[in-house]
Amino acid sequence: MASLTPLFISGQDVLPLIEGGKGISISNGLTAGSWAATGGVGTFSGVNADYTDENGNVVPILYAERTRTKRHQELINHAIAGGIAQAKIAHDLSGGKGRIHINVLWEMGAVETILEGILKEVHPLIHGITCGAGMPYRLAHIAEHFKVFYVPIVSSARAFSALWKRSYKNSAQWLSGVVYEDPWRAGGHNGLSNAEDPLVPQDPYPRVLALRETMREFGLYRTPIIMAGGVWSLKDWSHWVDNEELGPIAFQFGTRPLLTQESPISNAWKAKLLTLQKGDVFLNRFSPTGFYSSAIKNVFLENLQERSDRQIPYTENSSADSCILLPFGERGRSVYVRADDFEKAQNWMNKGFDYGMKTPSNTLIFVTLDQANQIRQDQIDCMGCLSACAFSNWSQSHGSTGQKPDPRSFCIQKTLQAVSHGSSIDHNLLFAGHNAYRFAQDPFYSGGFIPTVAQLVDQILAEHDAVQDAKTYNPITIGAPL
Predict the structure, then answer these.
(1) How confident is the model at residue 480 (pLDDT cuts 50, 70, 90)?
(2) In a domain, 319, yes or no
(3) Are both 114 and 247 inside the same structural domain?
């Protein structure tokens, strides 16, 4: 029987199997503690985690304040309480096995305040911090202060090099590993750069090898790289395991743990996962963060796509191209548009999309009055969940981004909180990796079987051992359309 070699991660030898830290209550203390109990690394999300009362019931976050700044403080207080609660649950369930990590997004609102507030109370229960969605230069400083390890999430060797030179070299002893997150295959927010084609996935091997070569330049020969994004079965990655060229490699599972008994997502969401086909996960740029993200195609995403499709450029003053006066909105305001765009607008308005809303790109989108009212209300209700939000124009540092609110986007806090607590899977955002279609194809899930976390980890190990024993492997297919 083959075996998977343990790696030294966050102060202890563990199975090189990492639970992905899915935000807004999806990876929580129950999932993280259960994963760590198998001997791997469990990860709970510190992104506005659920706070539970003495009976274990989730305490809903209700905003009593009227201003964004004061609601922002309410959100911070709830997030700290939630992170503390989930850390305790994870610690108790782990039974002292494995490691417990907390995952945060660097671009979430008040990330440093929230992370420090959680660690101040429970840092002995947390062994590491994983962090992506931005350039978390101060992550190392925070980790060193609380004497916990840190694991940055990057999508290129260049990004890690910048982090190392500016900050991490000063706290190298607390660097536990580096997550390489494939920006074409991972679920949730992805780190695609403007120079990369979102429709042309790149082979992860040379990108990870480049990361390893960069790390070796900095003396990080034995620091693990954690492969994330597109990881379904280790039989797909057996040529990466014990590969001297790549060095120590661990694997992060984000999508598969969604379908476990411990996973808090709704039964409807779990049933949906079992029916997905290839191509049902959509890489898009509707998020108010400005990042690309991957989510399951549904009515929610279709409405966002259609909203952006009903879009035309405008000018405030007549020009050679834009000389047709177009009234829009309830107050009868007017802008100038091209003749062909005027016809498009008239057609949309005749279909009931008769309310025009300006965007920061000097375009108009056309929606129904009810849709416009909902968009406005969601923008008014902003609680500052991001450091800067395109949808509401909130800015943590300045109060406003200085841009118009963008009605092509959406309130990400509202939809993720709603779906993570049982609301409609059709009318909310469902993050998932691009391999989610494999639930319907994998015989492990036949008959609608939903494993426990322990059963899933056993299956992952069994898949690895079977391939190693046979001395064969099935490398992943690179370059396939998303």
Answers:
(1) very low
(2) yes
(3) yes
pLDDT at 194 over 90: no
When divided into structural domains, the chain yields a total of: 2
Question: Is the distance from CB of 382 to CB of 375 less than 8 angstroms?
Answer: no
Helices (H), 297-443: 299-309, 339-350, 369-380, 412-420
pLDDT of 470 above 80: no
Can you tell me whether residue 128 is helix, strand or coil?
A: strand
Give the span between the Cα atoms of 287 and 367, in whole angstroms: 19
Report how far Cα 139 is from the mean position of its chain's Cα atoms.
18
Are 190 and 183 within 8 A, CB to CB?
yes
DSSP collapsed to 3 states, 11-41: CEEECCEEECCCCCCCCCHHHHHHHHCCCCE
Classify residue 448 as left (phi > 0), alpha (psi -120 to 50) or beta: left
In a domain, 482, yes or no: no
Q: Is the dihedral angle over the CA atoms 91, 95, 96, 100 positive or is it negative?
A: negative
Question: Residue 105's beta-bridge partner residues?
Answer: 132
Paired sense of beta strands 281-284 and 41-45, if any: unpaired
Residue 191 to residue 169: CA distance in whole angstroms:
23
**The tokens of 360 are what?**
């920061």
Calculated CA dihedral for residues 306, 307, 313, 314, nearest 10 degrees: 140
> Containing domain of residue 362, as a range?
299-420
Give the total residue count for the chain: 482
| pLDDT tens-digit series, residues 330-387 | 677 899 999 999 999 999 999 999 999 999 999 999 999 999 999 999 999 999 999 9
Amino acid at 80: I
